[in-house]
Specification:
Layout: E1 2-8, E2 11-25, E3 33-42, E4 46-57, E5 60-71, E6 76-85, E7 88-91, E8 94-97, E9 105-112, E10 119-124, E11 127-133, E12 136-142, E13 146-154, E14 160-162, E15 167-171, E16 176-194, E17 205-207, E18 220-226, E19 231-235, E20 240-244, E21 254-261
Parallel strand pairs: 9-16, 16-21
Antiparallel strand pairs: 1-2, 2-3, 3-4, 4-5, 5-6, 7-8, 9-12, 10-11, 10-13, 13-15, 14-16, 16-18, 17-19, 19-20
Amino acid sequence: PEYNYKDTDNDIDRYGALSASADWDSRELMSSELRAGVNSRLDDDLNSVGAYGDWGGRYGRVRGQAEHVDRDNGTTTNFYNGNLSTSFIVAKDQLALGGKEQNQSAVVIDLRGDAGDSFFDIIVNGGRMGTARAGTKTVLSLRPFESYSIRLKVRGNDFVYFDDKEHKVTLYPGNVVTLNWRADKVNIIFGRIQDSDGKPVANGLLKGVAGLATTDEFGVFQAEIIETVTEFQVQTRSSLCTVRLPQVVAKNGVASVGNLHCR
């Protein structure tokens, strides 16, 4: 609330006014950024109500605003405002669209692999600057004449294996730098590995799996397997054999494969 008092040449004018607003920010709830709000004002000679929305995602930014004003003299006015912005990059052997901010230089996040429905936060100098989806290219517009440390962080609870490396780049006006990552969806499988005689393959190192995995003295193991992998090897001190995987039926990314034979 506010109160206005004006005294000019013994002409006193006083009136009150009331305004209110509410805003909402998606923050970490969505892969894109969404802000929305409403506002209203009761004044001496007019009443107004308005709303706005601001969406920023991988393909650009959209802003919209509307306001309705009623005046004491009986007239009404409606205001509308909208804005759409994006970036379009064409380079050698490369085409990319997007970017919620516009600058004179950019980074293209080329995220390859089979984790197509997984999203990643793009972390720039320690802060979240956007999102990337596996199997696509994402444009990130950044200021020139600055250096950046860029890495990815998987969103949600997806089981994803990716090269968690950090890139360091320095940008200049008109400069476009492509950074490459690979991300694949994995299942966590567990079971027991036996040799051709039915004996456990004990204390073996699994090769061809995501990360580090071994068998214990009973041949029991747990490993992360990229969904497209159909076989892996087991290395012991005395032998090297190959395990062919059956069809893996995972529930929430976890599957039991029972007894497997290493030949």
